[in-house]
Amino acid sequence: MKSPCTAIVTAMLILMAGDVEGQAPDASKTDKAVISRLSVQFGINSKIITHLDLTPTFQTKSRWSLVIAKQPDEESSVEDGGGNRIGAVSICFVENGEPDCSEEMLLAKYREAKISFVAGEHPFYELFASDVVFSGPGRTLPLLRIKSCTNRGFNGNCGVSTFLFAYDRNADKFRVVFFNMTGRNNNEETRLVQSGPLLGNVIVAYPTSNAPFTYFVEVHKRTSDSEYSRVLTYRGTTGYGDGNALAVIDSEMPETLRRLGLWKIGDPLPVPPNTRCARLVMRKGVEWCDPH
């Protein structure tokens, strides 16, 4: 038989648990608020494609959610390079149930980079990623990542934007700490490193425009609660269409680490994340997946 004290404590715990559960955000209500807000903005009822409750992971003061919606393609007046109608993607931050779908802090980054868009077009038409990534050891220092694409050209190419957001506890707001845009047709990549000696860094690989046709590699690092800043840029030796099964960032990793003083010839080769390669080798300063 439980003692009176035990029963009281148990009852208090049940009441506390019920109170916390009662404070949980109503995702359906939030989504409806976003759809209503976007309908007023664009005159089109969008469909919710992402809903992330940011409160638990970032331990936010207010209730924060990320809600992303897409306009139905058939109701859009915008066409892609192939003549197909394509609906815009809208990104909304929701604080205590109140959606902000203005995307002003995202658009500000485009203006800073002097990137403009065709009149009447939206910056986002395809969503590649909307998730939480970790920039510290043991899945710490979370960042919110959004990766999206502009309207596609006739060859399918588009501008791939990568945004990383950190939670500012003092301001109780999310803010952009990293932004860039690349193409997508030539093995470009922007990657937040989540393990190894470059944990928390962002690596970018993008093609050169003149011979020899290789790739530029950049490393961006964040210190304290500041934005990311570039700490390394070099022209790599990975060639276009060289047949290497590794991504450009992985093929260039030994050289990237060497230039940062984190690897030297004779050290074990860096193992790419999620690799299925049975044998890694070096060829002319580039890491290769050897199929033989």
Describe what this molecule looks like in 3D.
The structure is a single chain. With 292 residues, the protein is an alpha+beta fold. Mean pLDDT is 91; it is low at 1-23. The chain folds into 2 domains: 26-184, no CATH class; 186-292, no CATH class. The protein has helices at residues 4-22, 27-42, 55-58, 104-112, 248-251, 253-259, and strands spanning 47-53, 64-70, 89-95, 98-100, 126-136, 140-149, 160-168, 173-182, 189-192, 202-207, 215-221, 229-235, 280-283, 286-289. The strands form 4 sheets. It has a 4-stranded antiparallel beta sheet. Strands 5-6-7-8 form a 4-stranded antiparallel beta sheet, with helices on one face. The protein has a 4-stranded antiparallel beta sheet with strand order 9-10-11-12, with no helix packed on it. The protein is built from 6 helices and 14 strands.
Give a topology summary:
Blueprint: H1 4-22, H2 27-42, E1 47-53, H3 55-58, E2 64-70, E3 89-95, E4 98-100, H4 104-112, E5 126-136, E6 140-149, E7 160-168, E8 173-182, E9 189-192, E10 202-207, E11 215-221, E12 229-235, H5 248-251, H6 253-259, E13 280-283, E14 286-289
Antiparallel strand pairs: 1-2, 2-3, 3-4, 5-6, 6-7, 7-8, 9-10, 10-11, 11-12, 13-14
Distance between the termini: 70 Å
Give the neighbour order of strands across the main sheet.
1-2-3-4
Q: Total helix count? A: 6
Taken as a percent bin, the fraction of beta residues is 25-35%
What share of residues is helical?
Answer: 10-25%
The unreliable regions are 1-23
Largest sheet: 4 strands, antiparallel
Shape from CA axes? globular
Average residue pLDDT: 91
Order of helices and strands: HHEHEEEHEEEEEEEEHHEE
Radius of gyration, rounded? 23 Å
Q: Structural class from helices and strands?
A: alpha+beta
